[in-house]
Every structure is written in C-alpha cells, then in structure tokens.
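hey so i finally got around to running the thing on that chain from the lab meeting. sorry it took forever, my laptop kept dying and i had to restart like 3 times. anyway pasting the input first so we r on the same page abt which one it is
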Amino acid sequence: MARKDYYMSISKIAKLAGVSTATVSKILNGKDQAISEKTRQKVLKIVESEGYIPNAIAKSLKIKNTKTIGLIVPDVMNLFFSELARGVEDSADRLGYSVILCNTDNNSDKEKKYLQVLQSKRVDGIIISAVESNKNICFSNCITPIVLMDRDIETDKPVGRIKVDNIGCTYDATTHLLSKGCTNIGFISSDTTNVLSRDRLKGYIKALEDNNMPYIEAAVYLKDYSIETGYLGAKKLLDNNKIDGICCGNDLIAIGAIKALKEKGIHVPKHVKVIGLDDIFISSYFDPPLTTIKQPIYGMGHEAVNLLIDMIEKKETNLLRVLNHRLVERMST
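ok and heres what got predicted. didnt touch it at all, straight out
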C-alpha cells in the first residue's frame, strides 16, 4: 500500500504539471540534469503547493537505502556523549543523512534491543558507543555496517573503529602532574572491565614507572565515569594517602574530585592539583577551570560518520582511525 501511495502522489503532481511521472521522479530524486529549468521549477512549485512528502519506506524499497544512520550511546546526559552526538548529527546532515538517537542507560539489554530496532527501521548503518561494562559484543546478526566509537572491545565480525590513544592520554596527564612538582599522585577512573579503562590505568602506571615513582594500589580508586566516582574516590584517597595530585579518567570524575577537596578545605591547585580527560564543554567554566587532556569529541563524531559512509558505499578504507589528543592547561594544576 505504501508503494501505491508513493506513486499516486507522483501521478497527481505529473497530471497537474502536464508532464510524465518519470519526469517528476527524476526531479524529486535530483536526476534532472536533462530536464529544462522551466519544467523543473513548475514541478517544484506544485510539489510545494501540494505539500508533497514522499513515503520514506516506499522510497527506500525503490532505491535500497533510507539515508538514515542509527546512533547508540550509553548516556546522552553525559556531556561527552552529547557533544559526540552533535558531531555525528551535523556531519550526517551535511551528507544528506538523518540520525536516529538511542540511549541505553549503560544497559546491555537495551543496547541489544536498539540494535534490533534500528535494523528493523532499515537504517543504512549504525554508530555505537557500547555499554561501559561490555568486554565484547555480538554483531553477527547485524547486516548493516557498524562503527564503534570511543570503545575498543572485542567483536565477532569486522567493524569500523574511532578511538584515541588512551594509554597516551593518561600517560601525558600523569606526566603533567609530575612536571608541576607532584610526588604522590592518585588515580580515579572507571573499573578495568573494558580495554578503554584498562588502557587509562596502564598509562598512569607507565608514567609513574618511567619517572621512577612507585605505584601504590591504595592511591587508586576505580568505579565508573561519573561525578560521584570522583567525589567518593577523592574522599577515600584523602583518608589513606597524602596525595598532592589526582589524575582522573574523565572530566566528570575530576569535577567530583574537586568538590570533595573543596569540602575538606583543600585548595586546588595550591594543595592538590587535579587533571581530567575529555575537555567537555563545562570544563573551561568550572571553578577552578579544569586542566584536561582534550579528546576531539566533536571530531570523533565527524570521523565516525565519514568512516560509516565509506563502509556503506563499500569504499576501500582503513577501518581503524586513531585521533590525536592534547593537553589543555587551565587553573586546576
């Protein structure tokens, strides 16, 4: 019925314009190079006056794509994923694609459900930042191209990957604290159930080792990438250690840590220096403005779309793209 409605609409426009349905179809699909501008404008004027909107499903059956991309993120309230989603949406729009956003609340069951839903909607491809606790993920039932973003987990089939050097990020963050004179640096981050979290811990440990500093397990607190983790983690580290610096697994953790330090009357950065990771929008407006390792968050979304489109169009391409990070020094160190 959908296909019938689609062609009936074109037929009506053709009749009003006094042209063939083939001519109308070519104009609506941008394949009107051989059609006169006068005819083109006449058809478009009727299209506008009639309020014609093509049936997307019927059209997709004809041209074998829907020009839509699915985006799955674990927490859309997290400013990191909000900026990531904006990068995806802006880039997709420039390339003529729409985006369906799905939020999993870091729930594996919801993630599986959304993978099924997006395929039922006939999306052309899927960009996913997997649930934080995932060690691996099954894509064997997915027939659409997939790009993993900000996660480096095991999959059962080849997928595109957009990532940064997470070992390098926390290595540079810890080295920066050492360069500022810190001699007892704590580390607060997510637990090490996935590669991303493990790599961030490895970077911290490697920086200590390369600078002949001891690794003290009691100076490490691991839970998840949240403000609460930073708040609780800083309190625990302060109880067990005389820390003078804290390397945080992301900016939200750093914000929570600074709150805990302030409540105990500890000045940042005079008494304890704090560095985050991500450079989310609010970091430069926090008190004190947060020193952080900047990931190109918006750029990750942009690159994910570019890679996915290459995969959709079956272009020869490198499925792994590693983006650069850099130190952004502000007032918290």
